[in-house]
Amino acid sequence: MFTVAAVCEIGGAWLVWQDIREHKGWVWIGAGVIALGLYGAGHRDLTARDVFGAPEAAEAGRRLKQCAAACEDYAERVFHALVAHHLAVGKQQ
To answer: Which of 28, 79, 87, 92 has its Cα between 20 and 30 A from that of 2?
Structure first.
């Protein structure tokens, strides 16, 4: 499916470009527009089916916030551990 999409996208753009550059005619433009339309329909279909199992935008945002909170919590715990270690080493000297 992805190979077909790539061929439609690149081929469609190439066909339109051939008319712009080489003045091939409306047939080339029409074929390019059809190929690009097929690419767009395929892209829309792949997006609608969610073939990668990617979360929706709201879910992705929620997961990013959880990750950021976990990272911040970890950084704070590391900071406190380093401060405690520094103070413990200072008392020993």
So the answer is: 28
